[in-house]
Design brief:
- By secondary structure, this protein is of the alpha+beta class.
- The chain folds into three domains: about 130 residues, Nucleotidyltransferase, domain 5 (2-Layer Sandwich), CATH 3.30.420; about 70 residues, no CATH class; about 100 residues, no CATH class.
- The chain is about 40% helix and about 15% strand.
- It is built from twelve helices and eleven strands.
- Strands 5-8-9-10 form a four-stranded antiparallel beta sheet, with no helix packed on it. The protein has a three-stranded mixed beta sheet with strand order 6-7-11, with no helix packed on it.
- A hairpin with a 6-residue loop joins strand 2 and strand 3.
- Helix 8 crosses helix 12 and helix 9 runs parallel beside helix 11.
- The chain starts with 18 loop residues before the first helix and ends with a helix.
- The C terminus is likely disordered.
Length: about 325
């Protein structure tokens, strides 16, 4: 952060651009200056600006709350216009050349100590190339008294956490998994916590709400968060209706067979139904339908039995157990009703 008039600098090296990190950098800079400026020209990083817009940018909610607490106005630059914060850009070049270049540090602590010493004894005490004045002297004599006083109370971060949405449409929190609408897969979302609720936001808009789960390793899933094809599973009504209609298209008896497959084989009916449909590659619908009629009469409700009937040609033989077929048709009618 560089003060535009005096050119007094504050530098801090961090390793991420999270909202909390960006705000803490501001707090440290204000503490170094001993006050707060009225306007801060900022870049359009996501930690501050959710959506860049020339007329009305969308601010990151927590950052804007922080700005209000410290009573400064964050003014974002226009997109791809680094000249609008040219003083800061030149400051970055200065620290790269005069502090970082050619140096090595054993650890982060050594880096921080060296940076503070350079900041106090070199950077802010030099004669500035543009103003031809010493930044520290100009700041102390002319600028410092114009700063807004630091707030009495510290800024309290809301209980907010960021998470990346996994490809399974869930985020992880406290050893549990909470669903998020599929449109936000691979996006970074914000999680705010309540006593009983978990609120998930994206760009200041709530996209999911769940009750907090006290157990561990649980999936708390709203199926509406999945894309439609994910809901298209064997146990769903849509999936069953799809195969029911395909078997009904073969013929009456094939259609009557379907609810019995679901009833007898609730967890494996769909490969059997697919198998019966695959018989269309070798046999006509009439042959398959008659085979299903014979299978119904002998209570042989399986793909292998129907395939064997088709292969042996016994579907042309007369059926004596006609009452069994009528009873099966009654089950089918109950299912469709």
């Amino acid at each position: 952060m560089r003060l535009c008039y005096s050119r007094l600098d504050y530098f801090e090296i961090v390793f991420d651009q999270r909202v909390e990190t960006f705000i803490n950098c501001h707090i440290n800079a204000f503490s170094y200056f001993g006050g707060v400026v009225k306007v801060i020209k900022i870049d359009n990083l996501k930690a501050a600006i959710i959506q860049a817009h020339f007329y009305e940018p969308t601010y990151q909610q927590i950052y804007k709350r922080f700005a209000d607490h410290y009573q400064f106005f964050p003014l974002p630059c226009r997109v791809a216009s680094p000249q609008e914060k040219g003083k800061t850009e030149s400051g970055i070049r200065y620290i790269q050349i005069n502090f970082i270049a050619g140096r090595k540090f054993e650890n982060n602590q050594e880096l921080k100590l060296s940076l503070k010493e350079w900041l106090d004894n070199k950077c802010n005490t030099r004669i500035h190339g543009t103003t031809k004045k010493v930044p520290r002297i100009v700041f102390d004599n002319e600028e410092k008294e114009l700063l807004i006083s630091l707030p009495i109370n510290d800024f309290v971060f809301p209980n907010l956490i960021t998470r990346k949405v996994g490809k399974d449409c869930h985020i992880t929190f406290a050893n549990n998994y909470y669903s998020v609408p599929y449109q936000y897969v691979h996006k970074i979302v914000e999680v705010t916590l309540d006593i009983k609720l978990i609120k998930i936001n994206y760009e200041n808009q709530q996209i999911a709400l769940h009750e907090r789960c006290e157990a561990k390793g649980q999936f708390i899933t709203n199926k509406a968060h999945y894309p439609k094809y994910k809901l298209y599973e064997p146990h769903s009504l849509e999936y069953q209706n799809k195969y029911r209609d395909k078997l009904k298209a073969i013929g009456q008896y094939a259609g009557d067979l379907f609810p019995l497959l679901v009833k007898y084989y609730p967890h494996s009916w769909y490969p059997m139904a697919k198998g019966i449909l695959s018989l269309q590659k070798q046999y006509t619908n009439d042959v398959i339908n008659l085979a299903c009629q014979r299978a119904l009469s002998f209570d042989a409700i399986s793909y292998q039995k129907i395939k064997a009937i088709c292969y042996s040609g016994c579907y042309v033989l007369p059926i004596e157990n006609i009452n069994n077929i009528e009873r099966r048709e009654g089950v089918a009618n109950d299912y469709y009703a």
